[in-house]
Task: structure prediction
Amino acid sequence: MDNRAQIREFLISRRERISPAQAGLPAYGGNRRVKGLRREEVGLLAGVSIDYYVRMERGNLAGASNAVLHGIANALQLDEAERTHLFDLARAAQPSPPRQRRTKTSGVTGGIQQILDAITDAPAWVRNARHDMLAANRMARAL
Result:
């Protein structure tokens, strides 16, 4: 199961198990179309906008701050294990940091170039992992 689906399933299941009375909210009308709390009620209790909570419940926890996650955990009355799971899901939803590119080196050290220049009987060169020629002796350059 991917992370977004896990987030959706987790938040919906926790929202459905809490009644408005358990959350300290008045239950207007006897016929509720949803089981448990409405999304609007969770957003109100957590101190976030309805749109933000809906986006989170759709599986997008990327960028959610610790304060927002604590607010959601409090609104859904999560125990310690559930809080830890929520924070783990949020951590997994964060985009991976961009890979650092290696700085391009223009050549090799002076000692390596001296070794290459000392080889006079055959062409010799140094290449990088992409097979770019970094340095060569006189015969290799002529070749």
The mean pLDDT is 86. The chain has two domains: 3-93, 110-142. The longest strand covers residues 133-136. The chain has eight helices and two strands.
